[in-house]
Amino acid sequence: MQPYTEGFAEKSLTPHKAAVKVDGHSYEAKVGPGQGYVLDKGPEGESRYNITQVLGGKNIFYFLTPLERGRLQTLPVDVKQKLWFDAAASGVRHQGDRPVSWRHSGYTFNSACYACHVSQYKQNYDLATDTYGTTWSEPGINCESCHGPAAEHIRVCAEAPPGIVPEDLRIKRGGRDFTHEQNNATCSTRHAKSIALSTSFEPGDDFWDHYDLVTMEHPDFYPDGRDLGENYTYNTWLLSPCVKAGELDCTHCHTSSGRFRQKKNPTRPAPLVTKRGSITWKPTAGISRGAIPLVA
């Protein structure tokens, strides 16, 4: 996630030449110099929605605009591989059999999109007034998301003599210092379709103390349990025999930043170090991504 700027638009976007027509309205993104808004032409006249934030990266960008009562809403036109498209229509799987309005709560960043895109997020929803006072510390996934609060870490490092690494770095290291369950819980806050029960989760905490897991009956999952492209893989991950046995965590195959450890040789079985020694695992053949039970 990043703020929308003219520099971003010049580098990453192409001119929007043909308006997207939805329910009697036409939407056209104006992303040239001095612009940065979506123009809405409808029966009631014209409206402008300023683009303030950008979600996405490699292949797709979604744009956010501030609406009434503190809502950040996904705009109706977005970009996939530099082609503009109808964002709400592409999300039909999330809201039933028919597309809903881009103003629907399913496209409200404050309650639907935040977990994967910002760090130290506070929703600050007020039920009495139906308003959001949402805040976050940084866009993207920052160090504290995996290592916990950094104030003490910064202090001891700043006070250490030049060239000396403090013996106690005052930080949660994760990885080998965590149990498999703790590592999985830390990653799952971004990879589980869930309902937040608190805003106080820190790395090392129990996932179930802070979140309620949405099950596979939800329309964001295929009938066989695979997620529909939103990276909600925690459900099927929990079905792995190795995970159930407490012998496997996410960082066995991935770095903490998500890179695949076996990228150069993805078909080679990887050693799995457990409390009982070293075993080898491989994915069960013929099963699609997201529905991969692992066998030792």
TrEMBL record:
InterPro entries in the record: Cyt_c-552/4, Multihaem_cyt_sf, Multiheme_Cytochr_ET
Signal peptide: none
The Cytochrome c-552/4 domain, residue ranges: 107-148
Keywords (A to Z) from UniProt: Signal
Source species, domain of life: Bacteria
Protein name: Cytochrome c-552/4 domain-containing protein
Organism: Dethiosulfatarculus sandiegensis
Source species taxonomy: Bacteria, Pseudomonadati, Thermodesulfobacteriota, Desulfarculia, Desulfarculales
